[in-house]
Amino acid sequence: MALSNNNSKRAALGTGLLALAGLVSTPVLAQDAQQIIRDRCLACHTETGSAEAPSFSRISEQRKTPEGWLMTINRMTHLRGLELTREEKRALVKHLADTQGLAPEETEGYRYLLEQDTNLVENSIDQGLAETCGRCHSEARFALQRRTEQEWKYLVDFHMGQFPTTELHSLARDRQWYQIASNDTAADLGKRFPLITQEWNNWQKASKSDLMGRWRVTGFVPGKGEFDAWMTAAKTSEGHYDVTLEGLYADGTALNGEGKATVYTGYEWRASLTIDGVKMRQVMAADKQGNSLEGRMFVAAEREIGGELSAVRDQGKAAVVAVQPSYLRAGEPAELTLIGQNLKGDINLGEGVVVEKVLSRADDRITVLAKATGNEGLRTVRVGQAASESALAVYSELARVDVTPANAVTRIGGAGGNLPKVRASYRAVGYSAGADGKPGTEDDLRLGYMPASWSIKPADEVAAHDKDDKYAGSFNAAGIFTPGDAGLNPERKMSANNVGRLTVVATVADGSTQVEGEGSMLVAVQDFVRRVLD
Amino acid sequence: MKLNKLFKSAGLVGSLALGSALSAVAPTAMADQEYLLTVTRPNQLHVIDMSTNKIARTCDIPGPFGSGAMAVSKDGTHAYVLGNNWEDIYGFDIRNCEMTFSAVQSTPTIQVKSFQSVAVSADGKELYTVQNPIKKHRDRFEVMEPRLAVFNIEDGLNAKPVRTFPVDRRITKIAATEKGEVILGGADVKAINPQNGETRVVTKLANWEKGPLWLPPDAFAMHSQGEQANEYIMPYITAKFDSEEWNFETAEWWWGMSRVDLATGEAERMETIPFEFIIFNFITDPRDSNILYGSFNTLSKHDISENKTLAVYEMPHTYYNLNISGDGKTIYVGGTSSDISIHDSDTLEKIGSIQLTGDMTTSDLRVATIRD
Asked: What keywords would UniProt list here (chain B) (predicted)?
């Protein structure tokens, strides 16, 4: 690694801060946070327990994600007259998420909500919970909380007090909703999502790795494309970091950003960065060793516009973290970029894949012209000692295209109204048919994200009759759908808004043929309620 | 058909202008004076003279909007409106907008909501509402049992309940019968004696015993109307499945209703017409109890003796609510937006419109008849 390399300079800076950080940071002042609770919350909440281990009514019987605590505190501010300074609020969210958070395992399967990636249909946990809670909330909303049974009961009464018509809604008025929710549902939630768990006990005791340092990052930004970058996290105080991000989009355009990150609960990475003038947010979870981060990055003002984000810590070892694109059609030479760190030694793209030419090479990025022969399948990509399993898919024919998100909600807006349009960004995932030769079966081989052209059509006859495809919005070339203007449209039946039900079509070229995939989109009216979590 | 009707009306009064035709004809056609009552945002009670279809007067209701639910005294002189987000009740003499009654139900520690429920006894002396109290502890809510609250209307402003009786949860609209009971529309339709709290089941809904292939009814009524037919209607949706595979596609979907005769307190419950489109409210033609009208995105006319839809008129926007003149000839379709659409009950054709100063949203559309 050349010392003149910019990346290594930042790494050195990071290491310097590492040493300092241990000196300056004291634990985020659990006592300070407790004092904030005493000063600001005890007009309503009650303190019991000892001075060293206090218990605060309604607070100490719950565990939540950082977003969950933020929502609670926002609610206390908006509805209950809580007054906090910005610093006090930050300190409280940090303290509560750190001391009454969720263990990594407890967020598994529900991270999409934290990642603000809500264009998906949830796999229902249970019909009762879906009908009692999921009829208004995402199921992740309650699955990302832990409470005593009594607290779950209090939550039911909260709903009745705050939203008195709860028991009159559809899926409530046809049953003894309050009795069911207060008795059966609260008990069920208390068992499924209890306050005290082994996972949390273990995580509290586990040693946590500081996330300061240098990270090899890959991701996707709608409208810009895939990118690879280096991210540095320089510690400013316990759990707080200054962050820089510098890299390249796949088309060669530079990417530059900086901002701040906070790590909650020992593994929940939350960063706000301004990247090339656009405010972006990162939501990632660290693995238990603190050597990799996985999550999503999205436009701060438009959470639907985002993409996958992952980071691998630079530990001085060689690593291949991604191959872009992740597929190679047999018989056709194509450019592949190997993203990694400390990449030295021979390049091996796996069985039957020949590197025809190395187009460019650096320690962290190698671009080659490659050609595949032989059987379809996943290949392990190696550079020297570094290996990435199943990093490259060799295929002969594209057989299937999936549209992601498969189901999406966009919302009309703009046109002088208070709320902007809610757009959606799409990607197409290609598959080959696999050994059975039939697309849509379990053995289909996932090839990865593929460039596609995007179009819409009406979802059905009614949508066609109402010309939803004419009014509800349109795609750009980058796969971003922009819905129509808000407000009555006198051209439409009953002057309907520009809402619609659409089928989204991705068309992917493969050799001389084209393969289409479809998704479903609802172009809905504005959502006037702003929530931290849906 | 529409043209013929128009020419007949026009010929009768010697005018080609429809609006003036109505206003010229109507007074002679009615012995009693009918007023259409509704509430618009921000919080006004409008008293509309149904002989001219003009706003006669507008009464300001204190505090924030409630939902626009209201009860009208049997003599048509007073209207009692649920205000302040379902918490307060204000009574007005609709002849002069004088506020004659008020009840603030919530206290600093008990939040009390009435979900649409407000009714006046047949003799005009008592006012009924179902209170849904929630105790506000310092750091939590506690749900309390609902209760029927009885007010003496004579107590006037700042009235307090004179009696309360426990009732079921989820009661929405209520009505007083001529026999002195109060009909409670909840999971089942029940009646309570407001003197002693004794209840009886008038007709079952959630607990009906209709057979295993019938979907339990989804019954919900936000609005009170039916004064012209002296009845209380609780519409519902149900479905008859063709097997225990519960295939929603092949099931027969039905509108049904529980309909209580407010003279007797007796009810009939029946599936009325196949479910073809959404109807938010039904009213019965005062001349023929088999003829119903419904409103939402359409105004529709139905003959329930034959389970048939007779006519459908496409509305230019959604109208939650409707009511009818005492002679059964004119339908007023309102709610949701700021205009009341007037229709001929034979043809359903639009014959007029009343523009209000604000949106009715969920408000009731009721008729007060002041007899000669």
From this structure: Signal
pLDDT at A107: 98
What's CA A171's distance to the chain center, in Å?
A: 30
Residue of B140, B169, B315 lying closest to A167 (CB–CB): B169
Q: What gap in Å lies between CA B132 and CA B111, rounded to an integer? A: 8
Which amino acid makes up residue A314?
D
Can you give the pLDDT at residue A529? 87
Tell me whether residue B230 is in a domain: yes
Q: Look up residue A123 and give its amino acid.
A: N
Predicted confidence (pLDDT) at residue B15 exceeds the cutoff of 50? no
3-class secondary structure, A91: helix
B-chain residues near A57 (CB < 8 A): 139
Q: Residue B231 corresponds to which tokens in the numbers above?
A: 């009845």
Please check whether residue B297 lies inside any domain of the structure.
yes
Amino acid present at B252? E
Which residue of chain B comes nearest to A168, CA vs CA?
Answer: B170
Report chain B's C-alpha Rg in angstroms.
Answer: 21
The CATH number given to whatever domain includes residue B139 is 2.130.10.10
Give the gap in angstroms from C-alpha A72 to the nearest C-alpha of chain B.
Answer: 13
**Domains, chain A, ordered by start:** 6-22+212-289 (2.40.128.120), 30-203 (no CATH), 319-395 (2.60.40.10), 400-524 (2.60.40.10)
Residues 6+ apart with CB under 8 A from A81: none
Residues A59, A73: Cα–Cα separation, whole Å: 11
A interface with B, Cβ–Cβ < 8 A, is 43-46, 57-58, 154, 156-158, 160-162, 164-165, 167-168, 170, 172-179, 182, 494-495
A interface mutation test: which of B110, B144, B167, B170 has the most A CBs within 10 A? B170
Overall number of domains in chain B: 1
Owning domain of residue B245: 31-370
Top-confidence residue, A323 or B222: A323
Classified as helix, coil or strand, A435 is: coil
To the nearest whole Å, the CA of B350 is away from the closest chain A CA by 16
Q: Name chain A contacts of B115, Cβ cutoff 8 Å.
A: 164-165, 168
Pair A308, A296: CB distance under 8 Å: yes
Residue B138 inside a domain? The answer is yes
Under an 8 A CB cutoff, do B142 and A157 touch? Answer: yes
Which pair of structure tokens corresponds to residue A526?
């504005």
Distance CA(A471)–CA(B144), nearest Å, equals: 49
Residues A54-71 have a mean pLDDT of: 97
Residue B148 in 3-state DSSP? strand
Q: From CA A429, how far away is CA A415, in angstroms rounded?
A: 34
ipTM, two decimals, is 0.89
Please write the tens of the pLDDT for every residue from B161-183. 999 999 999 999 999 999 999 99
Q: Which of A4-18, A116-130, A482-496, B25-39 has the highest mean pLDDT?
A: A482-496
Residue in A286, A324, A280, A268 with CA at minimum distance from that of residue A67: A268
Amino acid found at A200: W
Please say if the pLDDT value at position A365 is more than 80: yes
